[in-house]
Amino acid sequence: SVTQVDWDVNPRHHLTSTFSLFPQKLRFVGLNTFNPQEVTPNYKQRSFFWGLNERWTISDNALLESYFSVKKFDADVFPSSGEQAMNFAPDVNSGNYFNHQDRRSTRIEALEIYNFTPPDFAGTHFMKIGVGLAHTTFDGRNRSNTVRILRRDGTISQQIDFAGEGVQSRNTTEFAAFFQDKWTINDRLTLEYGIRLDRDTIARENNLAPRLAFAFSPIRDGRTVVRGGVGLFYDRINLNTATFPQLQDRLITSLRPDGEQVTKFQHMSVEDGRFQTPRSVSWNIEFEREWVKNLLVRVGYQQRQGTREYILDPLESETSGSMLLLSNGGRSRYREFQV
Fold it and tell me: What is the average per-residue pLDDT within 196-214?
């Protein structure tokens, strides 16, 4: 359900309150030919969101926007029947679903944005200054039962047992501030530039992200526009990643066809014990032309280069043994050409 209330307090103040409630229950998630009911989980969700937005028109050239919101998201994943081991086989899986999760999370966020038009200098300007603070909590338990990987003849190739309580808990506080200016130099050229600062209590880094964009009309008929931009962007570190070291460790037993057993203990580890914020550099260029009335042709190119992305590697070491290592060594590249 969604409810919204709008209130014109007076000609200068407008208040909006939004409340939404979104519970959900799903049975036999992932049911298909390879997963009968016994090896599928159930899912239960109890969640709500409440947001408050106040707009204060200070003057003809200034507007202050205030946001406050609370989001509660609780979710459970649990086997639909029984606590037996789960068997993964080439034809059909059997036993019971192996994983049980109880997740409790809350996010409280506040944001202030001041919009204003300063006196004209070298064109007109529309500026924004914002500052925000958010606090997110996550608590829960993630426990798993035994998992067996079977060969086609039904013999066990590998068995995975899980050790530890699987209790997860992590909080984070995020601070953000930004400045943005839309600068209309003349009727043919507009620049939009700004900078953003982010910091959280997980990575503990000050992330500065500058951005610049433009729109230019090379021909005075107003039917041709060239647009482009470049910017540095930082992701948030989600709490699933931040609680990775709190997952259960694994005891892996491999059985060779001759029956010989090889057992190893696999530990969850984060590279250098620290988290970094993933980031990307994105830029685009676009040409748009109205060739004839009501026929618009657009040609554009966009590229995004990502670094510090999280990847998970199984490693074997004589000194530290076997581990699942979470690191920021991931990279990605996205390219798009559009006509």
Answer: 96
CA–CA separation, 77 and 41 (whole Å): 6
- SS3 of the chain: helix, strand, coil, percent, to 5: 5, 70, 25
Q: What is the pLDDT of residues 4-38, one digit of tens each?
A: 999 999 999 999 999 999 999 999 999 999 999 99
Q: What is the pLDDT of residue 73?
A: 96
pTM of the model: 0.87
Neighbours of 87 (CB within 10 A): 20
Residues in the chain: 339
> For the residues of 83-106, what is the DSSP string, one character each?
-PPEEE-SS--EE---EEEEEEEE
What secondary structure does DSSP assign to 50-79, as a single string?
Answer: EEEEEEEEEETTEEEEEEEEEEEEEEEEEE
Q: How confident is the model over 135-154, as pLDDT tens digits?
A: 999 999 999 999 999 999 88
Tell me the pLDDT tens digit for each residue of 243-270.
999 999 999 999 887 778 888 899 999 9
> Reduced to 3 states, what is the DSSP secondary structure of residue 336?
strand
Q: What is the dihedral of CA 308, 313, 316, 321, to 10 degrees?
A: 80
| Cβ neighbours, 10 Å, residue 3 | 10
| Residue 278 contacts residue 242 (beta carbons within 8 Å) | no
What CA–CA distance (Å, rounded) separates 60 from 180? Answer: 19
Q: What is the 3-state secondary structure (H, E, C) of 233-300?
A: EECCCCHHHHCHHHCCEEEEEEECCCCCEEEEEEEEEEHHHCCCCCEEEEEEEEEEEEEECCEEEEEE
User: Which of 5-9's residues contact partners 24+ apart within 8 Å by CB, and which partners?
Assistant: none
**pLDDT-based confidence at 320, cuts 50/70/90?**
low
Paired sense of beta strands 156-163 and 62-79, if any: unpaired
